[in-house]
Amino acid sequence: AQRVTQPEKLLSVFKGAPVELKCNYSYSGSPELFWYVQYSRQRLQLLLRHISRESIKGFTADLNKGETSFHLKKPFAQEEDSAMYYCALSALSGNTPLVFGKGTRLSVIA
Amino acid sequence: DGGITQSPKYLFRKEGQNVTLSCEQNLNHDAMYWYRQDPGQGLRLIYYSQIVNDFQKGDIAEGYSVSREKKESFPLTVTSAQKNPTAFYLCASSKGAGDYGYTFGSGTRLTVV
Q: Which of B9, B20, B31, B10 is nearest to B80 (CA)?
């Protein structure tokens, strides 16, 4: 079974401080990992996916298969980063819907 | 302007009644999904459909039903058998199986009164 764990319900950081949102997963096959974000009064949207190895809005995430983690990081938090963040997983082979974690609310304090 | 539309935005239902939530997309996406979002629970999959006239149960399908008669539409019926229906319901679509650039709707908040 696929499972995604986001251990922090709420994470508060000061503006300019580094941010790390944790995500651990459980899956026996080859996973594809994603981060989705929901800003206040906006729709849930894709932030980044591990297979693209890209940086979006200053955020990066590296898949660590040994630790089964896909933590989201940003070196300097901005107030506009305040949002709900969801880590999601699916099989790399496709044909299965995304499994989401419970989400972490990031609050960036000015 | 392409997108995915959910209606209504707010819905109130009396206990014992069935209600249907609408989800329509004009993105020409093959796959559509229904998730339930509860505080502290994240998104849980109710049903999904990868092609017209076919759909599969998700993790919490009990008390729900769906249909996929048209590519553009994937309505969700919350039946009286659903024991705790008050929640926020999200519909999403994607180009197809294996494409995980999901486009989400703005959601429907269902309240049982």
A: B20
Do A52 and A5 meet the contact criterion of CB atoms below 8 Å apart? no
- d(Cα B42, Cα B95) in Å, to the nearest integer? 23
φ and ψ at residue B17, rounded to 5 degrees: -100, 150
Inter-chain residue contact B100 with A103, CB threshold 8 Å: no
**If you count residue pairs, one on A and one on B, with CB atoms under 8 Å apart, how many are there?**
48
Position B1 pLDDT exceeds 60: no
Chain segment A9-47, per-residue pLDDT in tens: 999 999 999 999 999 999 888 888 999 999 998 999 999
Give the Cα separation of A76 and A7 in Å (integer).
21
Chain A closest-CA separation from residue B17 CA (Å): 28
Beta-carbon count within 10 A of B21 CB = 22
Q: Which of A85, A96, A98 to mutate to test the interface with B (most CBs of B within 10 A)?
A: A98
| B102 contact A CB<8A | yes
Q: Which residues of A90-99 are buried (b: 16+ CB within 10 A; e: fewer)?
A: bbeeeebbbb
- The angle at the Cα of A36, spanning B31 to B101, to the nearest 5 degrees, equals 30
Q: How far apart (Å, rounded) are the C-alpha atoms in residues A47 and A108?
A: 18
